[in-house]
Amino acid sequence: MPMEAPALVLLARQLGEHSLAWFAGVLAVSVLGAGMACRALKRRRIRRSSSEEPDEPRLAAGLAIGFLSILGAASLVAYLASKLGDGRLLGLADQALADAVGDHVPWAALVAFSWLTHLGDAELLAPVCFVVALLLWRRAHHGLALGWVMALGGIVLLNPALKRIFARARPLHDHGLALETSFSFPSGHSAGAIVSYGMLLYLALRLLPARWHVPTAMAAAAAIVTIASSRVFLQVHFASDVAAGLLTGLAWLLVCVGSLEYARHRKRRAAR
Fold first, then answer.
1. Is residue 56 within a helix (H) or strand (E), and if so which, with residue range?
2. Residue 141, Ramachandran bin (φ over 0: left; ψ between -120 and 50: alpha; else beta)
3. Model confidence pLDDT, tens digit, residues 1-26
4. Among 241, 230, 82, 238, which Cα is nearest to 172's?
5. What pLDDT does residue 51 have?
6. Closest CA to 23 of 247, 239, 238, 229
7. What angle do CA 81, 84, 85 make, to 5 degrees?
8. In this structure, what DSSP letter does residue 171 have?
9. Could you count the other beta carbons within 10 Å of the beta carbon of residue 9?
10. What's the rounded Cα separation, in Å, for the pair 136 and 14?
């Protein structure tokens, strides 16, 4: 519709002009929300631990929710990709947001994001993957070690494959703080961040004392939001690239966590 495109592009430009304020708000909401959700989950576990409700209904419901979430994420990624052609509405909004960010974000903020974005670099996460897997294996958590390696290894294979399928060019910038040569859609840093830090949160919930659960959830949320946002601020990705990266990463994370929980359930049931 002729009036729809200018409205969305104008909204994207407004968001770009006030992007630092929006980032601060989203970061605060995400961190507080993660902490509150973790506390609610902990209370629910305590209440259920004293009941005799069987595990099977909860497991089936969890797997069903995970499966539907994966389908939803895949559908949204496909929808985003369908709207990114030349002159399409979402592509125009992406470009307007990127241009506004480039015009209004201070240099000091860009430098800060150029450092923070390295929290999602493969060069950092690869040693983390090895160290965590080694610690898990040495403490006889062999299933968790395998799941951890498969989660990070899987997204390393999945994201480049998707990039080659969609073959979208990256936005242009001249600040020189971040250089990327691969395709843009979906964002590998965003997908890797939600899988890596999401899996670290899952391991913390499984293995660490309860007093560490809420702080770990809040730290994981802060890392994911900051890494994903940094890609837009540095103009190495469009906003839709980041959204698609988060969706694909979340889908893969649900597969990995769901598989680990199913395996744990089967092992517990066999032991009984």
1. helix 55-82
2. beta
3. 344 457 888 888 999 999 999 999 99
4. 238
5. 41
6. 229
7. 120
8. P
9. 17
10. 47
| Residues 266, 63: Cα–Cα separation, whole Å | 14
Q: Can you tell me the distance from the alpha carbon of 42 to that of 217, in angstroms, rounded to the nearest whole number?
A: 12
Least confident of 57-66, 104-113, 139-148, 261-270: 57-66
The answer to whether the CB of 254 falls within 8 A of the CB of 70 is: yes
Q: In the block, which residue shows the tokens 């837009």?
A: 232
Residue 106 DSSP SS3: coil
Alpha carbon distances (Å) from 119 to 52, 189, 192, 200, 222: 43, 9, 10, 14, 11
Whether the CA torsion 37, 201, 67, 73 is positive or negative: it is positive
> How much is the pLDDT for 24?
95
For helices 213-233 and 89-104, angle between their N-to-C axes, nearest 10 degrees: 90
pLDDT digits (tens, 9 = 90+) for 182-207: 788 889 999 999 999 999 999 999 99
| pTM score, whole prediction | 0.86
pLDDT digits (tens, 9 = 90+) for 154-180: 899 888 888 888 878 888 877 777 777
Report whether 252 contacts 74 (CB < 8 A): no
Q: At what angle do helices 213-233 and 19-49 cross, to 10 degrees?
A: 150
Cβ 260 vs Cβ 144: under 8 Å? yes
pLDDT in tens, 72-97: 777 777 777 777 766 677 888 888 99
How many beta carbons lie within 10 A of that of residue 50, not counting itself? 6
Contacts of 175 (CB under 8 A, 6+ apart): 102, 107, 110, 234, 235
Give the residue carrying structure tokens 């936005």. Answer: 171
